[in-house]
Queue: 2 jobs
Job 1
Amino acid sequence: MQSGSNVFLEGLRQFAPEAVPGWALMLTAAGIGVAIVMGLVSVNAIFSVWLERKVSGHIQCRYGPMYVGWHGWLQSIADGVKLLLKEDMIPAGADRAMFMLAPALVLASILGAMAAFPLMPDVFFADLDLGLFAILAFSSLTTIGVVMAGWASNSKWTIFGAMREAAQVVAYEIPLGVALLVPVMVAGTFNLREASALQSGMWGMDWFVMPWNNPFVLPAAVLFLVAALAETKRAPFDLPEAESELVAGFMTEYSGIRWSFFFMEEYAAMFLMSAVGAVFFFGGFESPLTALAARLVEDPRLIVPAAEGGMRLNLGSLPYQLAAGTTLLLKTFAGIFLMMWLRWTLPRIRIDQVMTMGYKYLTPLALLCVLGAGIWEAIRHSWLR
Amino acid sequence: MLIQYLPIFVLALVVVGFALSNLVLSDVLGKKRRSIGKADVYESGMDPVGGARLRQSIHYYLVAVLFILFDVESIFLIPWAAAGKQLAAMGLGDLVFYQVLIFVGTLGLGLAYVWRKGGLEWDR
């Protein structure tokens, strides 16, 4: 697993004619990766909206969508077509430029964050050494878009939503980032693939969250879950939207396709937070299934050095790669399901409770976790040597 | 390596294209029937009175200022968390750990001060 070797690029190098210049290959490889990331975000939004409606339906003892396709699985696609055909309204008093820019900014920043997410151990779009950092940086840009949307609409509901979003997301970014530093400390890297590979021991069960690695990771995982709910504006922290008190919060004035951009962002953010949690706390690609697949294939690497120099694709490793990718997707959707379950179980909390929780409990606890984890790691690596 | 970030620039271009093409498509396909009532902001069926850019509670400002304090703190913790193992291997683990302890302790004192002064109380 060497950094920077991209499977799309190596595949193209192997099959493209000699005359094609290197930069064209790189651009094409990036283009394939972009298509996959965009497809992932779109399919995730379509699937998660359907899943949310089914989950909420069954929690409330009803069925949810049932008419469009088997158990309503085509409902989100039908809704997407409807949204595309809707009239795109801009209120008379709105700041037109900002109003039009805000949803695009929100979508672009979350898509930028998706870029650092690896699909399989050797199939990834951008292998960043600062992967986690890039994800956090990109996803906090969405706040600016949301505040822009609320301000530009020039409606009282949207302004309240935007102010709440600013205060809440800003307050919870600290415990989120600091809680994530605990597993980073155990891993010693921000790279998602490297962090996942470090957890492959004990038949893929040597996860960072397991207490024998570092007992401070488990409390950090709980803090991360709470902060991630607040960051993604999910209930019980859905104050910026708060459909029963603020109509739709910051997106009250949005309609049609612009509104659907906010929706895609929400589900992409849920996916990202679950994936980050899965990679840095719950083993990432590693599970007994992955470990079994790794023992069955000859060489788990998808790109291997060729005998005649250079690299070649090793398609024999596909069972392992697919098992690992499936494991991570299952873990991610388990996280998304947990977030949906919490949404339909817990009531919304008030803004003063949100702030108390963020600053008085989560921030000091997260700092204590980091210090404790630091002491533990120091004892393990320095004093006991 | 800066080349790691090339795909992200390609992604940025494609995302802008995706957003624009969706908006244009919606503009072409969607109906347009404008009216004065429809262009009004939604205020639960009432005519809106005055603009929406009202004064907001000072607490939001306070939260933003506190955020800057703690965000800078977490930025300084990040290199320590990532490099902790290597520093320990180099024999610098203890020294850096005490520095971090002093740093976090100072900020903890700051948090305690804000807490005592009532800066964290929302309903005052």
Job 2
Amino acid sequence: MKRLGFVLLVLAGAACARRTAAGPGAAARRPALAPSYELRLGRQVFQHYCQTCHGETGAGDGFNAFNLDPRPRDLSDPAFQKKKTDAELTDAVRRGGAGVGLSSMMPPWGKTLSQAEVDEVVLYVRSLRKQ
Amino acid sequence: MPLKRLFALTSVAFLAVLAISPAKNALRPYRRIQIRFRELAVARATSARQARDYARKPVAIHQIWLPAFENRVDRCTTCHLGVADPLMKRAPQPFPFHPWTPHTPEGFDRFGCTSCHSGQGLATTQGEAHATAPDAGPPMLPTEYVEAGCGRCHAAASIPGAPMLSRGRALMTQSGCFACHGVRGQETFHSPAPPLATLPVKTGAEWVRRWLKSPREVDPNATMPNFQLAARDIDALANYLFGLEVPEPLARRVQAAGEEPPGDAASGKKLFAESRCISCHTVEGKGQGSAPELSKIASAASRGWLLAFLRDPHAFNPRTPMPQYHFAESESRDLVAYMEEELRDFDAPKDILAPLRVNRTLAENGEKLFRRYGCFSCHGAPEGARLTEKFGPDLDGIGDKKATSLDFGRRTDLPRTLTSWLAAKIGSPRSFAKDLKMPSYGFGPEETRAVVTALLAMGAEPVPEPYRVVPAALPAPIPAAGAGRLIDRYRCLSCHQIGQQGGDISTAPLTFEGSKVQRDWLVDYLVLSFTIRPILTERMPILRMPRQEAAELADMIQSLFVDARIPDDPFAGKPASDADPVEGERLYVTLGCRACHIVGPSGGYYGPPLTDSGTRLKPGWTFAWLKGPQRWRSDVRCPDYGLTDRDALRLTAYLATLHEKRGAEKAGSR
């Protein structure tokens, strides 16, 4: 039973990854007025760990942003949102800037956040896309 | 013939009766729901085999049985079939995958469903399971209050992952709910409200009247609720309060202080800023706000009282969170001079501090009111009154109350549910009937929801042992004598946490402080505290602690507030190459530590600057922290880089080389 659950999980994970890879902006079109529970969890994670540098709206203008060179990424930029798949965002959150060949000023969060928290925060980052 | 017909009829009737039960079972709504789930799952399946497996699932009742948890049987998964099935992410109700929580998806078998969501686990129809009828058992909690479920097991005041519950519990403590209402675990609660015996030498009748009319209007930081008193009652209470006998020694102190020569307002103003009073107080709204607003303080308290209180606040209110500063006599005079010059209500009538000529009859009425409204619960019993019981009803079990057992009184507008009753009770307590005593706390909708969450968490019975999470006791008890009295005098616990005790104004718990910072640095810091984290607005006050006391306190902290998991010498037994500061500095750069920390001229200011980490921190602590910051503070932002021992040691070695000139000079001059 447990093994079956695991297999299902892996399959489902693969399915989700494939689906979202096809349309990375899909999650961003979720209605902003009534955020889902997952989205609210993601917002909590974002506000706690990311907002300092990436700013409240994700525009890369948090209060600590001005001490960083290069400046934090503007996460609300539609072009950026379009270019990056969920898998790439997850990877950047988990392994940090240095892990994906970018600035080491973005720390790796893979050992601090659970996989679920990373998924939630990626979901929330999607919702930050400027229309 | 009639007999035969009768027999036939009874047989038919008998068969029909027999058929009722199987028919009812066949028509149970969950069967249709399970078939719908099957269709949905087959449509979502990612392989033919998986689809086949779903299609073959028999229709049956599912249940989670928890013999160790009050013998709960939760059949919710009979309809909510997708809660543990990631394939059902964002599926429509009742099938969606359960959002992540600290206990899901791993904890379903241990916690079931009703332990968090409440409701009737045994039922297999929606109406019965969610218990929407008012006379059913405990209904399902509306999702907005779901954190109440956390509170059934978690007894701590602050629970990471349950912000609403934590806020509710904090609000209840702040508002002094437990002074009137008995609650398990809050037996030792005492309100920090001042005893009132010195009131006649502190303030005037007009100020008392204004305060009683609406405490929040006088002071926006007031925690005293509004008792919605009539003008006549306010007058009676004022007469009672001004008739109280002031304890002789305190009266003398206030009078003597009042006759002292005036101080220098300009140096008082400087001192006021230096002492960082607004780490707790506010001035015109600026400041932390857990202590009174001070912009009109000189119109609320007499000069003599202010002086005497500043010098020894604990003599006037043994439970005040205010530390006893070590001001020189003239310094306190300067402070009060500044208050009298600038921190006063310029619109107040001249006689706002004039005492009252007490009218005996009114005072007697006032005493009755004082008892009637339970003022003594917070302010202490009046002379001669023996109080053994709590003034209000106990709150244990309030979260399990049936809606039918609640008195809705005049509130016919409310839905007949426990949650709406509680929210109305908190929001406008006097609206239920005439002559109710509970005061109004002026909570906003968010605050009300938080308090209701905390109330719903109060079950009639504690949950069984293996599920109960009670905060750990103090690692080392604070001794009452010796340096322990300094902890009391300087009220360290008003801001800092030690173990599970203490306030949350400071971000630095002192539980492991002795393992964390170096003794000599700590002595210097206590004598003249400076800002460790520049972004914080609440700064450690400068308490004017004499060096000798600082040394005594630092020694106690070094010996008692330690943690065995933190090594004294992390380099012991390691090769010398592990202690290489040059490699450590390289790591500091490549890991990007300077995004948040300042070393030398540059860096972010989110974390504490590390310019003097070699003077401040013990290497054992630095190492233990680098190996996993969240082990020491679960919500800390410093990421866990998953460093190897060697890398953590090298970084530790580098940070131990950082000293600031200022610190070095001071150390030399001592």
